[in-house]
Amino acid sequence: MKFKTHGLVIYEKPAGETDRYVSILTKDRGVIHAFVRGAYNLKNPKSAATRLLCYSDFIVYESKDSFTVDSAESKEMFIALRKDIVKTALAQYFCQLCYELCSDNAYAGSYLRTVLNSLYMLCKGDKELSLIKAVFELRMLALSGYMPDLKCCKICGKFEDEEMRFAPDEGCLYCEDCLDNMNNYGIKTGLGATAAMRHAIYADDKKIFAFNLSGKSLEIFANAAESYTVRKTEKRLPTLDFYKTLSTP
Predict the structure, then answer these.
(1) DSSP-assigned states of every residue in 167-189
(2) pLDDT by residue (tens digit) across 106-155?
(3) Phi/psi at 202 (nearest 5 deg)?
(4) Residue 200 to residue 184: CA distance in whole angstroms
(5) CA–CA dist 61, 7 (Å, integer)
(6) Cα separation, 135 vs 139, whole angstroms
(7) Which of 23, 70, 73, 200 is the most exposed place for a label (fewest CB within 10 A)?
């Protein structure tokens, strides 16, 4: 049986001398794992459209226990980010996090929109990479069932506090009064970073990047998002470490 779909290639590896094995994040079927026959033949029209970070239209042949890409035509190859090794590394981290969090055979429209919007923002170049990364991490975790509770202080219900702290292990907020003598607990997010975290998980899909943050608040926001991601995935992804070796002065 053949079917049409469109999606982003989030993983690739050689499968023999001439074939490629890919994982494609699609809207209607989640992650599809498929073979691309003859992908390493440069004259093969499927070659370019089935590379990592290609957003393409696919016709896929489904057999009893496997998928094979019958044809592929690229819609977007994100050329702008491929010219920057740091952006490319961050995009690869996005793909690996998708691979970890997204399910097979399940609707994944929100996941696909989130990663595509994030890649477009990387290409556009008018937002800090750390802001794009933090928004992507929190949004993906929220979609995957790991949404932190950022509405108010877990204990007293206070909405804002200059000394507000985020607890990555618990995924919740505490105000200064409720922490009492535990002021070293969690990450002090204050007003700016707390507002950014709330926006990242609660805003409409089209508006998740509709804000700016800078300086210390951005640093805290990025730290809180990454800390929460590492705890919830229970692993530190190799692509994250590679990105940080390139982006850290």
Answers:
(1) ETTTTEEE-HHHHTT-TTSSEE-
(2) 899 999 999 999 999 999 999 999 999 999 999 999 999 999 999 999 99
(3) -105, -20
(4) 25
(5) 15
(6) 6
(7) 73
Q: Which domains does the chain have, with CATH numbers?
A: 2-76 (2.40.50.140), 79-247 (1.20.1440.120)
pTM for the whole structure: 0.94
**The residue count for the chain:** 249
Map 56-91 to HEC letters. EEEEEEECCCCEEEEEEEEEECCHHHHCCHHHHHHH
175-233 tens-digit pLDDT: 988 887 666 789 999 999 999 999 999 999 999 999 999 999 999 999 999 999 999 99
> 202 is written with which tokens?
């609660």
Place of tokens 């933090």: 134
User: 5-30 b/e with 16+ CB inside 10 Å = b?
Assistant: ebbbbbbbeeeeeeebbbbbbbbbbb
Q: CB-side exposure of 49: number of CA atoms within 13 Å? A: 19
Task: Spell out the long-range contacts of 205-210 with Cβ–Cβ below 8 A and sequence spacing 24 or more.
Answer: 205/110, 205/113, 205/114, 205/117, 206/117, 208/114, 208/117, 208/135, 208/139, 209/117, 209/121, 209/127, 209/131, 209/132, 209/135
How many degrees, rounded to 5, is the angle at CA 82 between CA 81 and CA 86?
70
Exposed, middle or buried: residue 127 (CB in 10 Å: 0-12, 13-18, 19+)?
Answer: middle
Give me the amino acid identity at 13: K
